[in-house]
Amino acid sequence: MNIHDLSEYQLYKLKSIDPTLSSDWSDVVNSILPKLNQQGQDTVYENILKPRGIFLNDEDNLIHKSPNTLRQTVENLHTNNQELSAISWHMLKIIDPNINAYNAIKLADEVEAILSYLDSVDTNNSISDQKYRQMIRTAFLYDLIWLYG
Question: Which of 23, 44, 126, 142 has the fewest beta carbons closer than 10 A?
Answer without folding.
Answer: 23
